[in-house]
Amino acid sequence: MTDYIAKAQARRAKRDAAIPAEYLVDLSAAGVPALPEESLPLPYSKTQPHHPEPTTIYPRDNVLSVPSKVLSMEDVAITETPLDKLLSLLATGKLSSVRCTEAFLRRAVLSHQLTNCATDFFPDLALTRAKECDDYLAKHGKPIGLLHGLPVSLKDQFHIKGTNATMGYVSGIGNIADQNSVITDVILSAGGVLYVRTSVPQSLMRCETHNHIYGRTVSPFNRSFTSGGSSGGEGALVGMHGSPLGLGTDIGGSVRVPSAFNGLWGMRPSMHRVPYEGAANSFLGQESVSSVIGPLTHSLEGVVTFMRAVLAARPWELDPILVSMPFNEEAFALKNLQLKAGSAEPAEAFDSKSQLCFAIEWDDDIVHPHPPITRALREVKEKLLAAGHKVIDWIPYDHLRCYDIIGRIYSADGGEDIKRSCEAGGEPVMYNLMSDGKPPKHLSTYESWQVNREKNQYRKEYLDYWQATKDKTGTGRPVDGIIAPVSNWASCKHDLNDHVSYTTQWNLLDRPCVVFPVGFVDPEKDPRVSLDKPYTALPDNVDQVYWDRYDPQEWAGQPINLQVVGKRLQEEELLGLAKVIRDAGATVN
C-alpha cells in the first residue's frame, strides 16, 4: 500500500474512533444509500482543464429530511431553532449548553454520515466546555458573551490546542497544535463551544471539497452535486443544520460558494477585520490578495452576531494586521446613508421608506449565469422596487482583466507552495490551478511587483467607476450596493465547479460581500433556453460548455443564492443593506 494512502486511512480511523457509538445511525435501516468510496490514487483529468468530466457516480438524492426521521423530536427542535432564539434560550438558561451541544453533536455525526463533511469530532472537549458555560451562568447570573453556550463548527484550518488540523494535506497529519488560533480564542471568549472541524480541498484552491485524507464532501440537496469549496465541509454541515454557525475562509469565493450551494447566509469581510493569526493556510506570505475568515449560517442575524462577537473581543490586540474598528451600530442602522440636507449630521434612524439605490450585475461578460440565477436577480429587483428603492443596471468594468490579474497573483509562485506541501506527504497534486499539466509561470520578485501595480491600478479605476454612479442613482450618492451572482450555476455535478470569476472579482477589489438565499430551482420557472451569443473571453468555448450542462430536472430543488457587494471595510453598512433586502421580502429566510 502506498504510504500516503496508509497515513490517510489511519487519520480517518482516528476521526471515526472519536465518534460515540450511540451517535451513529444505521443508514441502511433508514433506507438511505451509503456514499461510494473512491479508490486511491484518484484519477485526474488533464485533457479538459476548464471542464473535466465527473469521475465517480454518487447518489442523486436529497438527504435534508433524514434527520427528522431518525433523530429525536427534541434534537430536531433544538438544532432547527433559529440562531437568535437559540442564543436567547442559552443566555437565559432555558436551554442548557450541555443539552444543546449533545443535540448538535448527534446531528453533526448524522450530517457527516450523509455528506462526509467532518475531519474531527470533539465530544469530550465540547461537553466539558458546555458544562463550564452552564456553571458560569448559574454562578454569575449572566452569559459569558454573545455566543454563550453555542456550538460553533470550524473549518480544518483553525487550530485547537492539542488537536491536529491537517488542512487537507497528508503532510499535515500528526501536526498537533501547541496553541489555539486567534479566532479559536475569540470564539471561546464569546462563550462558544467547539465540537467539530470540517473538510477542505487539498490546497484550498478549489471550489470542490475533496482531498486524499477524507475523500469528497457532497451536497445535502443532491449528493451527486458539490457542496462547494473550499469551505465545503462547513457548507454541508451547516446546510444539514448540523451546526448553527460555521467558520470558513475566503480567498476566491470559499465562504460564498459553499453558502450559496447550501442555501445559507454567508459573508466575506474585507481583509484585516477578522483575525487570521495562528490559522493554517496555503500561500502563507502572499499578501496581494489575502484569505479572510467569514461565517456560514442560516440567517442574517447569525452573520451579524458573528461580527459583533468577534469585534467585541478587540481582536486587533491579538492580530497585528487588523484595523482597530469596533462594530459600528450606526453604520448597521444605515444612519450614514441618511444625511440631512446640506449637513454631515446623520438622521436619527433609517426607516423602510428611506430610498436606497442598488445595482444589478446580470452577468460578468465572461460566463453567463444559468436561467435560475437570472430569474432570482429579476425577482430581487422587483421586490426592491416594490419597497420603494431604486435599481439600476451594473455594467461590468473589465472583469476579464480582473480575472487575469488575480490568476497571476494566485500562481505567482509557479505552484511551488502546493507542490512542496504535497511532496512532503508523498501524495499527488489533485485537480486545481496546476491541473492542466503545466505548472503556471513562476514570477520573479520584480514581475510580482508589476502584477501588484496592475492590481492597484485596477482597484483605482473600479473605485472611480463606482463613484461615478452618483450621477445615475437619483439619491445624491453612488450606488449603495451591487447585487450579483455568486456563481454561474446553482451548484453542479462533482468535479465541474472550476469557474470563479463571480467571486474572485470582489477578492481582488477587497469588497465585502454578503450571500443570501433567494429560492430554489423550479423546472417550470427555469426552463432550458438557447444561449444567443456565448462569450468568448475564455478558451475552449467555456461559456457554451457551462450553459449546455444545465438541465432543469437535474437542478430541480437546488438553492439559488445571490450576493450583495459593499464598500471596502464597511461591513456594518453592508449588513444593513442585506437587512433591507431581507425586509423587502427578497430572501427565503
Q: How does this model look, in words?
A:
The protein has 589 residues and is α/β, with parallel strands linked by helices. The chain has a single domain (3-32, 58-583), classed as Amidase signature (AS) enzymes, CATH 3.90.1300. Helices cover 36% and strands 11% of the residues. It contains 20 helices and 13 strands. The protein has an eleven-stranded mixed beta sheet with strand order 1-3-2-6-8-7-12-13-11-9-10, sandwiched between helices. It has a two-stranded antiparallel sheet with strand order 4-5. The N and C termini lie far apart (49 Å). Residues 45-51 and 339-343 have low confidence and may be disordered.
Low-pLDDT stretches are: 45-51, 339-343
The description of the largest β-sheet is: 11 strands, mixed
Shape: globular
CATH architecture annotation name: Alpha-Beta Complex
InterPro entries: Amidase_CS, Amidase_dom, AS_sf
GO molecular function: amidase activity
Protein name: amidase
Family: Belongs to the amidase family.
